[in-house]
Design goal:
Elements lengths: L6 E6 L6 H13 L3 E6 L1 H9 L3 H7 L8 E2 L11 H4 L5 E7 L1 H8 L6 H12 L3 E5 L5 E5 L3 E2 L1 H7 L5 H5 L5 E4 L2 E4 L9 H5 L5 E2 L3 E5 L12 E2 L4 H11 L12
Parallel strand pairs: 1-2, 1-4, 2-3, 4-5, 5-12
Antiparallel strand pairs: 6-11, 7-10, 8-9
């Protein structure tokens, strides 16, 4: 069995940049009848949770056949990635892809579900599309939930409603001011709704600098910057054109 037309592999790594857009594309493809197997790193799981997207991800990868969510807890060998070496998927999309993951792929390191899946896809001749978070020297991205400590300082509430409402204990009071421990945050936004002074912020746009990854050294993957993957993935996966995969595109 080669290149099943309705089966797609998707890798998620630990980045917030392009994360919402990636989930939206996956949801659209799922509604069009695609079975999506998600290969996610531990950092990817943590970031998905802190941005409040875990429920949406698990609706896409609900555990049924070829719609599994493959995590590090499923075993170091990542056996489900073997399907890629046998060409069972029409394509593999890695989005978002951190500089750390890109560096591993460039240097042939396969030690997480995403990097193992990419390595197996390249062995099996499955087209690979990578959306790196560090394609430009600088880029605009969005934060998870954060506390504006200046606003918090200005009001100095006697009782902190966000802290009282947080279901996981992620919202802490440090030195008399609010702080969110993102390692505990599940992105529920209760703190955002509870703060009467708007000191809790979510998806604040910030400028970030990229890390150099040497991505251009690797020739087997097609690399897209920004949202270019969206239309290309739809076109290629829908079969309206031939997918190229022995090139690097910036």
């Amino acid at each position: 069995m080669r290149f099943s037309r309705n089966k797609l592999a998707w890798c998620i790594t630990g980045a917030g940049h392009h994360l919402f857009e990636s989930i939206e594309v996956m949801e659209e493809l799922a509604t069009r009848g695609f079975d999506i197997t998600v290969f996610i790193s531990q950092a990817g799981l943590e970031v998905i949770r802190m941005y409040g997207l875990e429920k949406r991800l698990r609706a896409i990868a609900d555990g049924s056949y070829y719609r599994e969510l493959v995590t590090p807890s499923d075993g170091a060998s990542c056996s489900k990635a073997g399907r890629l070496s046998m060409g069972r998927y029409i394509a593999l999309v890695a989005s978002p892809t951190t500089a750390n993951t890109v560096a591993k792929v460039v240097n042939g390191i396969a030690d997480t579900p995403p990097t193992i899946a990419i390595a197996q896809a390249l062995k099996g001749g499955v087209p690979v599309f990578v959306v790196p978070t560090d394609a430009e020297p600088e880029y605009e991205t969005e934060t998870p939930h954060v506390v504006d400590r200046d606003l918090c300082q200005a009001h100095r509430c006697g009782e902190c409603r966000p802290s009282k409402s947080c279901p996981t204990g992620a919202f802490e009071i440090l030195e008399g001011l609010g702080h969110i421990d993102l390692s505990k945050c599940i992105g529920c936004s209760l703190c955002l709704r509870e703060c009467p002074f708007g000191a809790v912020k979510f998806r604040v746009k910030v400028r970030a600098r990229s890390s150099s990854s040497g991505l251009g050294k690797r020739q087997e993957a097609v690399i897209y910057e920004g949202g270019g993957i969206v239309e290309e993935a739809k076109r290629s996966i829908a079969g309206s054109g031939e997918t190229a995969y022995n090139a690097t595109i910036f």
